[in-house]
Amino acid sequence: MKTIVIIPAFNESKYISSILCSVINFVDNIVLIDDGSTDKTAEIAKQVSDKICVLRHRINLGKGAALKTGCLAALKLEADIIITMDADGQHKPEDIPRFTKEIQENDVDIVFGSRKIGEGMPYMMRVGNKFLSVIVNLLFRVYISDTQSGFRAFKANVFDKIKWNSHNYSVETEMIVNAGKNKLKYSEIIIDTIYHDKYKGTTIFDGLRIFFNLLIWKLI
Amino acid sequence: MIGIQILAIIFALWMIYFSFLHFRRKEFSLKELVLWMILWIGLIVVVIFPKSIDFILKTFSITRTFDLVVIVAIVVAIGVTFRNYVIIRRLEKRIEDFVRKESLKEINEDN
Prior knowledge:
The complex is a heterodimer. In chain A, strand 2, helix 2 and strand 3 form a beta-alpha-beta unit. In chain A, strands 3-2-1-4-6-5-7 form a seven-stranded mixed sheet, sandwiched between helices. In chain A, 47% of the residues are buried. The N and C termini of chain A lie far apart (35 Å). Chain A has one domain (3-219): Spore Coat Polysaccharide Biosynthesis Protein SpsA, Chain A. Chain A contains eight helices and seven strands. Chain A is an alpha/beta fold. Chain B is an all-alpha fold. Chain B contains four helices and no strands. The longest helix of chain B has 46 residues, at 65-110. Chain B is elongated, with a radius of gyration of 22 Å. At the A-B interface, strand 3 and helix 3 of A face helix 4 of B.
């Protein structure tokens, strides 16, 4: 099965080369979406390997929009399994085979990677994550212990069912909501995480926005 | 004439000047200019002759002209906010589609 990793990146020139070098050993292709970076993220990525397809957004549209572009590109490249990863190096590429194995052996549609709650995770992120997990479970009957982890894998043919409209960090939650609404077969695996930059990622305001979005998604 | 009326007239005249300026810069069509002129001139008429809209006040059981102005202003503000929201969402969607289409072209060129 052809496995393609999608990596949305915004000003990640610091880590991108090492991340791509380590990821490429585990997959057939990588689609890197440079979401309007002002540094040399795209240029560096292009030099790493021919198996990396670098796409550029002329302006910064947000993580959700970048992931959507990546998925459309992966479908064009005839992917069977699509994996999404963050570009800041917080996910371990060694976990990729666990995702593909889960899809192939247990025939699940989507696998959510969940970070170990507590291990190095900032306190506010821990509280916010738990809160969102409970709300998602109450509203959509899907329990994922880490709703905000960007490390996921799904069968390419379910993309239309989980397709999101969020541009920002709500994308991860919307993906879970759509999987729940379409009754997709899902599973969760625990992943290791390295926090390089505590100022990046979901903020408390993103959390509040996600909460209000959850209420809207429930209503429509 | 009280101070608030003078202020309202100055504001309306100022807006007439801006409407005309936008028309001269070809940012407004003649139709848009006429619409805005009707609005601002109407405001001046109501400010100078508040009794001219007494029939509206009676119809809607509103006590003072000022109350009517506030009600109309709130309704217009909500309407404009909604319209702006729709326009911004439409523009966001168009920008996203355009940027995505451009970036996906690269995949076709590479293959």
